[in-house]
Amino acid sequence: MLDYKLLAALAAVVEQGGFERAAGVLGLSQSAISQRIKLLEARLGAPVLVRANPPQATAAGQRLLNHVQQVRLLERDLRHDLPQISSDAGRTRLRVALNADSLATWWAGAVAPWCERERVLLDQQLEDQDVGLRRMRSGEVAACLCAVEQPVAGARSLLLGEMHYLAVASPGFIRRHFPDGLSQADVRSVPAVVFGPDDQLQHRFVRQLGVDGEFEYHLCPSSEGFVRMLEAGIGWGMVPALQIGDALRAGRLQQLSPGWSQPVPLYWHYWRSGGQLLEGLTAELARRAPALLAPGVSH
After folding, report:
1. How many CB atoms lie within 10 A of CB 165?
2. N or C: which end of the chain has fewer CB within 10 A?
3. Could you say which architecture CATH assigns to the domain 164-263?
């Protein structure tokens, strides 16, 4: 029989990024948290954490975290169906992973009514759309947005739509670096702006121009900061059309390849045994996301 106090300690350490914060969340001493983790490992006969900074779940720990996530959701359903078993009227906290561009554009409009109606607090973890499944595999989140269709074991995926990315820069930047249009020599030596190490959109665009190998780029892990850097003339980059309609109309940004866009599919991944809460959020996203994503095609 699993001891859920021990599992709660494991989940808190991973979710909070350390023993000290986990202790504060659970109202225990750091020593008590450490003892619970050691007891869990002794009963399991295998380590559940890699003592790094922050601590990382082992393969066994990930299996347990996946279980904890699903149990929390099922307990929420039980409290809803049998309110007499609990007097706790607090809001439910749900951990999901999504890409920063969705968070900066359509996501809030899609989930806000549902969060209020279902009394849910979202704990949103940012991951590039190409790698969001990492969080689900590690047991840290109950659902994620990513560009990959194939779900992890025990999960389902649903295509919500596509985000259309445009290659853009400021007018001054284009005049300085691309006065005669795009060319292989230009793109290799002209600085781009890339969101992070997992962001491959600019790399794909460059390859489509026939350029192989490395090119120069700034790193900017912020959707809003990314656009500001482009408007300031620091580099060129790939941005969702949804995010820069006003900047294009006002002339603060211009397309490097007018009429061209890079579609990126967005799949919603969620645990099959995630209960009514995840099913409800999935239905809400399926209903609202396509209309919110569609305007990006027209820019």
Report:
1. 25
2. N
3. 3-Layer(aba) Sandwich (3.40)
